[in-house]
């Protein structure tokens, strides 16, 4: 179980020279869906959070702008952002040495499965080799500083199970079906290897799909709920999709980041499957999402071959009994509640978009 001082609600501190200091977390991928929820979660627990962000030609901090405080307001700003990249080993080691974190969460990835078929080499560089770069940076930082208490979380994925039939648990063999999934398998084994070879506190979270109103708009759940909102207010009429028969075990991202943290509060490092243990097809998601606003998905969905993948993962449904027993974790948000949360937010978003379209500020044909 999580140690007493780290139970929800109690401050997360680390003793130093007789004084207690806030725990320090370093997060890669802080600008992504999970990074934003994890940051909120850790700030609520009293952590100081350092996020590594990559340079982009547009601002990429939309998901964390609401918690950003200008660093000139130093005593209030507990989230700090630094430029780095998983493809740049020197930047990872430099920030570890500067930040001296207690916990490192590696969430950064080229995380789109279909896109990984288009950019396989880049995907492997970030999703697989990026992990060994970060693990090696942590290992060498520990060797140089003696800070052996650092804990490392690796964002593993149910995609690693690929075509192995459900239910999938920690002991289920991997059979990856995309460059993304194969790279995540490498990342998984790098993490196990650094734990066994160097005694590092390194955990793999094998997380099944988790969604939210902050989900990227080209993942199927958000693509659907965005379309529901826009169709409802008259900004769109068709929704182009691929395979509707794939089944996924969909949970809420806010619940899943808690499991990441719980893994790092254990006495021993280990690997855990995190899942709702309930599976639905894409078609069932459509049915639920369109149903909430009283529409029929069949009136709007058009199948487009371009969204089929060269190899598909048909059926994912997790067995998370280990996480439930050892960590005491369980999901709070169920399937229907998740779909409703996403549809409600996207209907509101579409209404705001409609105001801009009606005022002539944006083009109604411009789909997300
Ligand atoms: P997102 O795609 O929303 O976020 C990915 C993050 O990684 C972004 O912050 C992105 O930055 C950053 N990133 C991408 N490439 C690099 C790079 N080269 N160097 C540094 N940062 C980079 O993913 P999620 O939040 O949904 O997922 C978080 C992690 O969990 C990922 O590793 C994903 O593969 C894994 N995962 C996700 C699941 C899910 O259902 N959401 C399930 C299982 C695993 P930018 O904002 O600039 O693009
Ligand atoms: P997934 O999520 O591949 O499971 O990876 P995604 O939402 O992209 O696909 C889920 C299923 O829906 C089918 N599908 C479509 N998918 C997309 N994106 N767009 C479409 O138009 C469409 N039509 C049908 C797909 O074929 C697939 O079967 C996510 C990512 O977050 C990974 O990073 C993570 O590791 C896994 O979840 C667990």
UniProtKB/TrEMBL annotation:
Cytoplasm found in the keyword field: no
NAD(P)-binding domain ranges (all copies): 26-342
The keyword tRNA processing is annotated on this UniProt entry: no
Region (Disordered): 1-22
CDD domains in alphabetical order: GDP_MD_SDR_e
E.C. designation(s): 4.2.1.47
GO MF terms, alphabetically ordered: GDP-mannose 4,6-dehydratase activity
Pathways involved: Nucleotide-sugar biosynthesis; GDP-L-fucose biosynthesis via de novo pathway; GDP-L-fucose from GDP-alpha-D-mannose: step 1/2
Extent of Polar residues compositional bias: 1-17
Cofactor: NADP(+)
Pfam families: GDP_Man_Dehyd (PF16363)
GO terms classed as biological process: 'de novo' GDP-L-fucose biosynthetic process
Catalyzed reaction equations: GDP-alpha-D-mannose = GDP-4-dehydro-alpha-D-rhamnose + H2O
Function statement: Catalyzes the conversion of GDP-D-mannose to GDP-4-dehydro-6-deoxy-D-mannose.
HAMAP family cross-referenced by the UniProt entry: GDP_Man_dehydratase (MF_00955)
Similarity remark: Belongs to the NAD(P)-dependent epimerase/dehydratase family. GDP-mannose 4,6-dehydratase subfamily.
Protein name (record): GDP-mannose 4,6-dehydratase
Organism for this UniProt entry: Salix dunnii
């Amino acid at each position: 179980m999580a140690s007493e001082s780290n139970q929800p609600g109690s401050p997360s501190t680390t003793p130093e020279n007789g004084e207690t200091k806030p725990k320090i977390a370093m997060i890669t991928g802080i600008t992504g869906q999970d990074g934003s929820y994890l940051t909120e979660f850790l700030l609520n627990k009293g952590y100081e959070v350092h996020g590594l962000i990559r340079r982009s030609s547009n601002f990429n901090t939309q998901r964390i702008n609401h918690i950003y405080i200008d660093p000139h307001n130093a005593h209030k700003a507990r989230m700090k952002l630094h430029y780095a990249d998983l493809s740049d080993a020197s930047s990872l080691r430099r920030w570890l040495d500067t930040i001296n974190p207690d916990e490192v969460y590696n969430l950064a990835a080229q995380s789109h499965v279909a896109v990984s078929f288009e950019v396989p080499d880049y995907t492997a560089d970030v999703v697989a080799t990026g992990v060994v770069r970060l693990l090696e940076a942590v290992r060498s930082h520990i060797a140089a500083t003696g800070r052996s208490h650092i804990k490392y979380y690796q964002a593993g994925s149910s995609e690693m199970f690929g075509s192995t039939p459900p239910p999938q648990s920690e002991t289920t063999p991997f059979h990856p079906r995309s460059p993304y999934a194969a790279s995540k398998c490498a990342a998984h084994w790098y993490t196990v290897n650094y734990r066994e070879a160097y005694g590092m506190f390194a955990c793999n979270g094998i997380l099944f799909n988790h969604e939210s109103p902050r989900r990227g708009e080209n993942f199927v759940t958000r693509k659907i709920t965005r379309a529901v909102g826009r169709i409802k207010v008259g900004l769109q009429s068709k929704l182009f999709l691929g395979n509707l028969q794939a089944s996924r075990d969909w949970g809420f991202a806010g619940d899943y980041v808690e499991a990441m943290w719980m893994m790092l509060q254990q006495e021993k490092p280990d690997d855990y499957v995190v899942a709702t243990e309930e599976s639905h097809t894409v078609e069932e998601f459509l049915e639920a999402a369109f149903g909430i606003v009283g529409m029929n998905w069949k009136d709007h969905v058009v199948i487009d071959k371009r969204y089929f993948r060269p190899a598909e993962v048909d059926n994912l449904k997790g067995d998370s009994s280990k996480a439930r027993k050892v960590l005491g974790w369980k999901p709070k948000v169920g399937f229907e509640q998740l779909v409703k949360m996403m549809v409600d937010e996207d209907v509101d978003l579409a209404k705001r978009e409609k105001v801009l379209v009606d005022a002539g500020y944006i083009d109604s044909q411009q789909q997300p």
